[in-house]
Amino acid sequence: MNPDALRGHMDALLLSVLEREPLHGYAIIEALLERSGGALSVPTGTVYPALRRLERIGYLSSEWATVGGRKRRTYRLTDSGRKQLEGERSAWQEFATVIGSVLRAEAAEVSAVRAANG
After folding, report:
1. Residue 33's pLDDT band (boundaries 50, 70, 90)?
2. What is the mean pLDDT of residues 90-108?
């Protein structure tokens, strides 16, 4: 997956993964990879700064926990983060609908021209 395609969507992806349960950073990266069918291999250098930023603005909270014998910071979605996720989903649906409309129209025109030129 082109990293530029993720630009502007990382917050929504992270919030969505944390909607189900609190997770530590590496588990978040694994969840993104699993939920995307292997298409989203996001580097730690992208995920951890985004998690810290989302925590600073109040969408996430974190606490230290021992996971598998290792001390790790576990992130949890806040009520504010849930509201933000709802907004992100709504914005994504609108974006996907608009872009889809443009791409479908273009594809339909190309198909029509090809059919006419037979």
Report:
1. very high
2. 85
- Dihedral sign computed on CA atoms, order 45, 29, 62, 56: positive
Q: Are 90 and 17 in contact (CB under 8 A)?
A: no
Question: Token digits for 65?
Answer: 């926990």
Structure tokens at 102: 């443009």
Let me know: does 15 contact 54? Beta carbons within 8 Å.
yes
Q: Token pair of 81, please? A: 């983060």
The band of 114, judged by pLDDT with boundaries at 50, 70 and 90, is confident
If one counts every other C-beta atom within 10 angstroms of the C-beta of residue 23, the result is 20
C-alpha radius of gyration, the chain, whole number: 19
Q: What is the largest CA-CA distance in the chain?
A: 67
CA dihedral of residues 24, 25, 27, 29 (deg, nearest 10): 160
Q: Which residue has the tokens 């600073």?
A: 56
Classify residue 8 by its DSSP letter.
T
- What single letter denotes the amino acid at residue 100? G
CB 12 within 8 A of CB 48: no
